[in-house]
């Protein structure tokens, strides 16, 4: 591996030569590649599949999920189903003029289906089912004259079915089931070929296809109007911002390319098809940094262990990367979070921030023990929490969490977060409070994890854009609009977390979506009917009405739409402490 550990101090000529290769590569990303980078910019979070898309490649043809025409190198297929993609679908997708196959089903896309899709005139299959698309079906889809498959089932689309879809003469599969569509199904063109299996589970569709007479007798549906224009306005604003961020990213990459030490450039070119191997990460000059003697091992020992890690040791993966179980010879176990780098080079900023995060110690926070800054990835070493995440405990395990445990977890999470907001200097906004970031120790005590990480990685991606990290469903309304995180946006997410713990349901559980709500909307609805206690998980044992009322009242305040109306985390902890009567066996809730 000696060749990979060369650095900038190599022969100057060779260095200049290589830099110019890097630069020509950067300039040469094909227009289709630029479109995909812009597509990625609106995605707030995923299972990490898009991390491997590298803007410095000449074309996107080797990127995950992408296929090109072998001759022209134009993108003909984009297939990213089941990757936990969260965010709106960029209207720039309409610029992929040779796209034939688009499969984004079973993700969490939201916002409208961009009418610009109607520009992909070679599209043969469009799979957008099982997302949260809302608004109307754009009539522009009727322009897709070679479309054979259209599946937009399982979204929250409303309005009626546009007449223009009748022009899709090649269409052999149509599914608009389980949406909120209503009105007459046009009995026109190709639409006469489909029967009720294509239309089941909508609010109120009528027509010959579903054997239901329409009252007004009209066979044609009026094309979409109204709310869609509002939505499109939002999209346009968004794409403006995206444009700025894309050019900023490209600019930043150019700079980075200049500074890049070419050893790692070579290494990356060769290692491109094997992003899985951790051994390659740490070969060639990786160094381990430990915080105040937290890791009583030599760098060599740790690197040896890192090299031995492989897929078998993966315990989870999230928006920012993959987590491995790292067991040392003395029996101590750690969690290693591996984040692929978007750019190369030393990152002083990153190291400084990590020093700060590593210095934060608290009973209800996950301890960051050290890190390894290699040329291809960032490896963070945390305490391993044997209880896994609260997300798993609530939604994936068969045994239910007892009421007392749930209270205790809420209390711990509140204290951890209050510590970040009020006792740290500088104060730390978490930005990504959600149940998978609340980890549990052996006694099911809560530990808040990943604090500060969202900010850290946003700054790595680009110093200009504010990318909304965190997960749809936990995000405060003002955060969704401005992308600006504050302590109060954390308080909102904490309120959602409390509701999730009380109800045992994820914030965007299908049962809420069916009713046209998310968890907060459902709570607010129940409150107007004075039935808020009904939100509680019926499987939960030991529910105490007094503490339930207090918790509901805290949650209601935390998810108020005005940030200034929400309590501080300090206040939340005070309220919680005043209502909880600790059992004799309990720990005393000490906040330091
Ligand atoms: N320190 C840790 N100890 C035990 N399990 C962990 C730890 N950190 C993360 N995990 C597991 O790995 C999963 C992925 O973590 P992460 O990459 O932070 O993504 P996310 O928080 O979005 O789920 C978590 O959901 C959790 O189950
Ligand atoms: C779609 O095509 C129309 C006309 O061909 C053009 O005006 C518009 O800019 C295109 N939109 C996109 C997103 O490519
Ligand atoms: C696409 O469809 C819209 C509405 O259905 C129509 O106004 C427009 O002219 C069409 N564009 C093209 C390029 O065919
Ligand atoms: C509906 O059409 C499909 C083919 O598109 C066919 O397989 C199915 O049997 C039809 N169902 C009914 C109830 O007619
Ligand atoms: C459409 O999707 C629904 C729900 O996923 C399914 O039940 C139905 O069979 C599908 N219809 C067709 C024609 O594929
Ligand atoms: Mg996490």
UniProtKB/TrEMBL annotation:
Keyword set, alphabetical order: ATP-binding, Cell membrane, Glycoprotein, Kinase, Leucine-rich repeat, Membrane, Nucleotide-binding, Phosphoprotein, Receptor, Repeat, Serine/threonine-protein kinase, Signal, Transferase, Transmembrane, Transmembrane helix
InterPro entries: Kinase-like_dom_sf (IPR011009), Leu-rich_rpt (IPR001611), LRR_dom_sf (IPR032675), LRR_N_plant-typ (IPR013210), Prot_kinase_dom (IPR000719), Protein_kinase_ATP_BS (IPR017441), Ser/Thr_kinase_AS (IPR008271)
Span of the signal peptide: 1-28
Assigned EC number: 2.7.11.1
UniProt-annotated binding residues for ATP: 341
GO cellular component labels: plasma membrane
Topology term for the membrane: Single-pass type I membrane protein
Polar residues biased stretches: 221-236
Positions of transmembrane segments: 242-267
Subcellular location: Cell membrane
Listed SMART domains: S_TKc (SM00220)
Chief location: membrane
GO molecular function: ATP binding; protein serine/threonine kinase activity
Pfam family for this entry, one: LRR_1
Region feature (Disordered): 216-236
Catalysed reactions listed for this entry: L-threonyl-[protein] + ATP = O-phospho-L-threonyl-[protein] + ADP + H(+); L-seryl-[protein] + ATP = O-phospho-L-seryl-[protein] + ADP + H(+)
Domain Protein kinase residue range list: 309-580
Subunit structure: Interacts with the ACC synthases ACS5 and ACS9 but not ACS2, via the kinase domain.
Protein family membership: Belongs to the protein kinase superfamily. Ser/Thr protein kinase family.
Described function: Involved in the signaling pathway that regulates cell wall function, including cellulose biosynthesis, likely via an 1-aminocyclopropane-1-carboxylic acid (ACC)-mediated signal (a precursor of ethylene).
Name of the molecule in the record: non-specific serine/threonine protein kinase
């Amino acid at each position: 591996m000696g060749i990979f550990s060369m650095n900038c101090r190599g022969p100057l000529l060779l260095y200049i030569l290589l830099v110019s290769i890097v630069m020509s590569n950067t300039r040469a990303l094909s227009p289709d590649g630029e479109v995909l980078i812009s597509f990625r910019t609106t995605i707030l979070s995923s299972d990490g599949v898009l991390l491997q898309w590298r803007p410095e490649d000449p074309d996107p043809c080797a990127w995950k999920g992408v296929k090109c025409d072998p001759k022209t190198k134009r993108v003909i297929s984009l297939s990213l189903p089941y990757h936990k993609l969260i965010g709106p679908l960029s209207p720039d997708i309409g610029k992929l003029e040779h796209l034939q196959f688009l499969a984004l089903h079973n993700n969490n896309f939201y916002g409208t289906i961009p009418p610009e899709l109607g520009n992909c005139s070679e599209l043969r299959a469009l799979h957008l089912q099982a997302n949260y698309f809302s608004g109307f079906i754009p009539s522009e889809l009727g322009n897709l004259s070679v479309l054979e498959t259209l599946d937009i089932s399982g979204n929250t689309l409303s309005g009626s079915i546009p007449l223009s879809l009748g022009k899709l003469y090649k269409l052999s599969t149509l599914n608009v089931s389980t949406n909120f569509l209503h009105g007459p199904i046009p009995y026109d063109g190709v639409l006469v070929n489909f029967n009720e299996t294509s239309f089941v589970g909508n609010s109120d569709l009528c027509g010959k296809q579903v054997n239901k007479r329409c009252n007004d007798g009209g066979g044609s549906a009026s094309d979409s109007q109204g709310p869609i224009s509002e939505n499109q306005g939002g999209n346009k604003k968004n794409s403006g911002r995206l444009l700025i961020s894309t050019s900023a990213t490209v600019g930043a990459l150019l700079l980075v390319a200049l500074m890049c030490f070419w050893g790692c450039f070579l290494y990356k070119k060769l290692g491109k098809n094997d992003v899985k191997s951790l051994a390659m990460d740490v070969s060639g000059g990786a160094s381990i940094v430990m915080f105040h003697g937290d890791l009583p091992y030599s760098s060599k020992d740790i690197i040896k262990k890192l090299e031995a890690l492989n897929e078998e040791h993966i315990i989870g993966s999230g928006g920012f990367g993959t987590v491995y179980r790292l067991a040392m010879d003395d029996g101590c176990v750690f969690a290693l979070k591996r984040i692929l780098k978007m750019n190369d080079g030393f990152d002083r900023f990153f190291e400084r921030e990590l020093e700060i995060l590593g210095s934060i110690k608290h009973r209800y926070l996950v301890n960051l023990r050290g890190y390894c800054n290699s040329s291809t990835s960032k490896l963070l070493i945390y305490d391993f929490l044997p209880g896994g995440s609260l997300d798993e405990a609530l939604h994936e395990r068969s045994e239910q969490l007892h009421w007392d445990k749930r209270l205790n977890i809420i209390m711990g999470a509140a204290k951890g977060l209050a510590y970040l907001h009020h006792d740290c200097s500088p104060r730390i906004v978490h930005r990504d409070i959600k149940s998978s970031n609340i980890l549990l120790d052996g006694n099911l005590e809560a530990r808040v994890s990943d604090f500060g990480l969202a900010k850290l990685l946003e700054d790595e991606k680009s110093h200009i854009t504010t990318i909304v990290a965190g997960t749809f469903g936990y995000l405060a309304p003002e955060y969704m609009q401005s992308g600006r995180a504050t302590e109060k946006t954390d308080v909102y997410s904490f309120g959602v977390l409390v509701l999730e713990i009380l109800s045992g349901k994820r914030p965007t559980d299908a049962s809420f979506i069916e009713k046209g709500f998310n968890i907060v909307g459902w709570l607010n609805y129940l409150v107007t009917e004075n039935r808020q206690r009904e939100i509680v998980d019926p499987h939960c044992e030991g529910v105490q009405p007094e503490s339930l009322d207090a918790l509901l009242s805290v949650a209601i305040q935390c998810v108020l739409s005005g940030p200034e109306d929400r309590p501080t985390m300090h206040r939340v902890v005070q309220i919680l402490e005043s209502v909880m009567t600790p059992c004799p066996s309990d720990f005393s809730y000490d906040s330091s």
